Amino acid sequence: MTPAQHQSAAAALLQAEATGQQTGLLSIAYPDITMDDAYAIQKQVVAGKLAQGEDVIGWKIGLTSRAMQQALNIDIPDSGVLTSSMRFDTGDTVPAGRFIQPRVEAEIAFVMKSPLGGAEVTRADVLAATDYVAPSLEILDTRILRADPATGAARKVFDTIADNAANAGVVLGSERHAADSDLRWVGAIVTANGTVEETGLGAGVLNDPVESVVWLARRMAQYGQQIEAGQVILSGSFIRPIECPAGTRIEADFGSFGRVDLQFG
User: Fold this and answer.
1) Most C-beta atoms within 10 A of its C-beta, which of 51, 112, 118, 182?
2) Is 75 in contact with 102 (CB distance < 8 Å)?
3) Is the pTM of this model over 0.90?
């Protein structure tokens, strides 16, 4: 793809978000699209948000579970950017019509107290740079069709990455914990309208959510980037996405780690 095509694809995604009308699969419009193309489009999408007055507040890491990687035939996670309009607090109500096809995932969020970067970042570096960890929900949305209506072809990882890794929101719980506890055993029971939909453990995220942040820092180093102090890092989901049509109330019970609640208007 050319830089002009990257810009055109990003404009289509931003327009889809603004209007609530999804755009077509980029993997069909541009059959030779690569991972580098997808991240270049994502970069243009984020640039568009910054031009609208938003700020970068953090990063999300996706496709961290073995099951999701196998489903998309890849062997690495992906990442996206959190911007200021995406921030919600536990107990908030998402305004009706804010998202197109919202879903939620349960995650452990890292909030950083110092910058973190470099190709040789270690687990110890992540722990030293983390202010605290907290229970969280990630809100996913898709500005791009999940399947092509003409062929039935499903979206590919290139589509998802270009669409800012399907990122739409972050909901932080109020509890704060030290990052040096064994996050592999932090889990959640997630209900929608009182029905248990999903359960899972932190070990589902690359066997340890800390390793997910290591991966992100090293990947960012390839592009001359680093994680900044104060940023929120969503380390990856340990449950499958839960559909959230209007009226859905989500409650994520992390036990002694805390809880996160969200209502969709």
Assistant:
1) 112
2) no
3) yes
Calpha distance 157→260 (Å, rounded):
28
Whether 71 shows a pLDDT value over 80: the answer reads: no
Separation between Cα atoms, residue 179 and residue 227, nearest integer Å: 16
* Alpha helices per DSSP H over 3-156: 3-19, 26-29, 35-51, 66-71, 123-129
Residue pLDDT, tens place only, 12-34 = 999 999 999 999 999 999 999 99
Nearest Cα neighbor of 185 from 213, 207, 170 is 207
* 241, containing H or E segment: none
Residue type, 7: Q
Helix (H) or strand (E) holding 84: none
Three-class DSSP category at 123:
helix
**Cβ 192 vs Cβ 242: under 8 Å:** yes
> In sequence order, which residues have a C-beta less than 8 Å from that of residue 152 and are 6 or more positions away?
none
Q: What is the pLDDT of residue 74?
A: 74
Sign of the dihedral defined by the CA atoms of residues 49, 51, 52, 55, in that order: positive
160 near 33, Cβ under 8 Å? no
Residue 208 phi, psi dihedral angles, 5° rounding: -175, 120
Give buried/exposed letters for 12-25 (b at 16+ CB in 10 A, else e): bbbebbeeeebbbb
3-state secondary structure of 70: helix
Q: Which helix (H) or strand (E) holds 210?
A: helix 209-221
For 257, residues 6+ apart whose C-beta sits below 8 A from its C-beta are: 135, 175, 177, 186, 188
